[in-house]
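Researcher: Structure for this, please.
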Amino acid sequence: MALLGKMKKNFRIKKDNPYGLGRFLTCSHWRLTMSQQTTNSELSFSPASERNKMPILEVLKAELADIGEVWEIGSGTGQHAIFFSKELPHVIWQPCDLKETHRDIQARIDDAQLSNLKPPIELDVNVFPWPMESAGAVFSANTLHIISEAAVQAFFKGIQHSLKKSGKICVYGPFKYGGSFTSDSNERFDEQLKKRDPASGIRDFEWVNQLAQNVNCDLINDHEMPANNRLLVWKKK
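Model: Predicted structure, token format:
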């Protein structure tokens, strides 16, 4: 997502769902993709997912050390699902997203042949109940600044009824603190997001943290990540 403002000719913007015309996606509404040939078809590819996977993994290794199952909200291209399930073999990884993303996710799953990686499940954060119960952890990357504030609230409402006691929420992406951006580049990125959709934008950490507290989840870690991102971790009481 951080590459939205740095498009090249061999990239294309893929509009997954029109803004303001129904459901908000749990993954990016606007995904920066480029063609990647596989044995079966052309799959969407996220340069951002490829770039941030290693720093995220280093955090998840510690945060998910005692977690047996993770539900990924907004799996998008499926790149994170493949990589993290391979690198965290003790974790059962469940990709979740809208139906239209499932072809790419399933193609990657079929290629990977990992026993701890499940087929994708359809999930819209605004539709309740969510198709899961007692998840050990929820992971989501680069989603909360894309979906609307109402959808962010729905995200935590869904977690309230789907995350088991002592379960964790791990959310990666950019945030504001005290109403201020953490970098000039994040401020420019926020402007780009709002030009595409006024309902999107980098969220205030304090507001997001309050939403988590409202569903009995306490912040246990705020990890600083490369490129002015954070990885926030909450634990359910």
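Researcher: Any notable elements?
Model: The two ends are 32 Å apart (CA to CA). The first helix runs from residue 47 to 63.
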